[in-house]
Specification:
Its main location: membrane. This protein is mainly alpha-helical. It has 19 helices and no strands.
């Protein structure tokens, strides 16, 4: 049996360097994703592709992350969080370099997959280190802390991406990750604690293959409606096979002691509801990073630089909402906040259908700011309620499953957006790309609203009182 951790648990402010390191890792990922979204139209022109068919650049990364995340918890438990985290940084950085050197869309998608393999371990292993280091009564404040610096990525990403596209080329949006990755690697050598699992388990290869195959099949079926040009029969075949593979994994996990994600996780009410709520809520949220830049650049004709600057209020409002989330949850409880805020997120998404070129800019900025605030609060509260009641033995698998669902939903969101755009583009011929975008915003807003049915099942509970004390310090 291995020790759960190789060094004593830090107390007070001793764990702040770890929180900053994990924030840097998230910053690198978020900077990459927001720069990519802003540069998609420029990439499409450079590679000779349609800007409305570029969801594969987002989709391939999210699918790669979701596919490899199930193994991240076992790898971290077996080889230690420090070694796994450093390997993740190296793979992500090399993937970024490969993206910058890609001569075609196919090569770019393949390079994004390599990035995704690194990203599959980067975020969940970093968050796992926080879970095993920070005392439970400080967990909500720690989650808020690592989220606030991470929002600097979305703040800088769109503007920086737009500027790079205009003064240089889209290739430089990936090269920016190289110095950040080097800094993160050096910092990880000094800061990242080396946690191991309490017990050694064999890797559930059969379960992993069924789970990964099911996710890939379902994702390709959804993306196939628009991106693959597949026949309807093939799309249906992939969907049925994917569902069968996931059902097979469920039966396998019920009879296996070493399952990647033991079904006992779902005995925890907050985790069960939080996972399902994350899945359905994030499908809509996962579509927005693809849709908003397309609306601003393709629909309204903005330059990449101006479109990037329009995203600044989204990130600023998100940073403010992260701090407000703690006090609001403490006062009103998880259930009430998630019920109300989910409705606000869905309405804000659908509200983008009202944006057109004849409006004053301040109206557009108000909508972007409102969306940034409620969407950021949604992520913070959903993630915290999902993980808060897991014990140390469940932490690794529960955290990996949450990370997998987050990225899978992001991929579903990108694929859903691409499919809806293709469908509305066909049925709204003559109305232009803006009409297809407006209709898609309404649909993704409705998808998000449906997740209130899940959060409605939450019991009335509130965080430990000390969580708010920690945030105030």
């Amino acid at each position: 049996m291995s020790n759960a951790v190789s060094s004593p648990l830090p107390t007070g402010n001793a764990h702040k360097p770890l929180l900053w390191l994990v924030s840097l890792a998230i910053f690198m990922q978020m900077l990459d994703s927001t720069i990519v979204n802003t540069a998609l139209p420029a990439m499409a022109r450079s590679l000779g592709e349609s800007p409305l068919q570029m969801q594969s650049v987002v989709f391939s990364y999210a699918l790669a992350v979701a596919t490899f995340i199930p193994a991240s918890g076992w790898i971290a438990d077996r080889f230690g969080t420090r070694r796994t985290f450093m390997t993740a940084i190296i793979l992500f950085t090399l993937g970024s370099l490969a993206c910058a050197l890609s001569p075609s869309l196919q090569w770019l998608v393949a390079a994004r997959v390599l990035q995704g393999i690194g990203g599959a371990m980067l975020l969940p292993v970093g968050r796992l280190a926080v879970m095993r280091t920070v005392p439970r009564e400080q967990f909500l404040s720690a989650m808020s802390f690592i989220a606030i610096p991470a929002l600097i990525g979305p703040l800088l990403g769109p503007t920086l991406g737009g500027w790079m596209v205009e003064v240089a080329s889209w290739h430089w949006i990936f090269l920016i990750n190289l110095p950040i990755g080097l800094i993160g690697l050096v910092a990880a050598l000094r800061i990242m604690p080396d946690h191991y699992g309490q017990q050694k388990h064999r890797f559930d290869l059969a379960g992993y293959l069924m789970l990964a195959f099911g996710m890939v099949a379902l994702s390709l079926a959804l993306d196939g409606v628009s991106g693959l040009g597949s026949a309807h029969a093939l799309v249906i075949l992939l969907a049925v096979i994917g569902i069968a593979a996931l059902a097979g994994y469920w039966l396998h996990a019920a009879n296996s002691r070493d399952a990647l994600f033991p079904l006992t996780l779902f005995h925890v009410t907050s985790f069960r509801i939080g996972i399902l709520g994350n899945l359905f809520s994030r499908i809509g949220s996962g579509a927005m990073p693809l849709l908003i830049p397309l609306l601003l650049q393709v629909g309204l004709g903005m330059s990449p630089m101006r479109a990037g600057m329009m995203m600044i209020p989204v990130a600023l409002a998100g940073m403010a909402a992260k701090r407000a989330a703690v006090s609001l949850v403490q006062r009103f409880g998880y259930r009430r906040i998630l019920m109300i805020n989910t409705v606000c997120v869905g309405v804000a998404m659908a509200g983008f259908a009202l944006i057109d070129g004849g409006q004053p800019v301040w109206v557009q900025l108000v909508l972007l700011t409102a969306f940034g605030a409620v969407n950021s609060m949604q992520f913070t509260v959903m993630n915290t309620v999902t993980l808060r009641d897991l014990d140390m033995e469940q932490a690794s698998s529960g955290n990996s499953l949450l990370s997998m669902v987050m990225m899978l939903a992001t991929g579903f969101g990108a694929a859903t957006a691409g499919s809806l755009l293709a469908t509305f583009g066909t049925h709204l011929v003559g109305h232009g790309a803006t009409a297809a975008l407006h209709a898609t915003f309404i649909c993704v807003g409705a998808i998000t609203l449906s997740s209130t049915l899940v959060f409605w099942q939450l019991p009335e509970n509130r965080p430990h009182p000390k969580a708010v004390e920690e945030v105030a310090e």
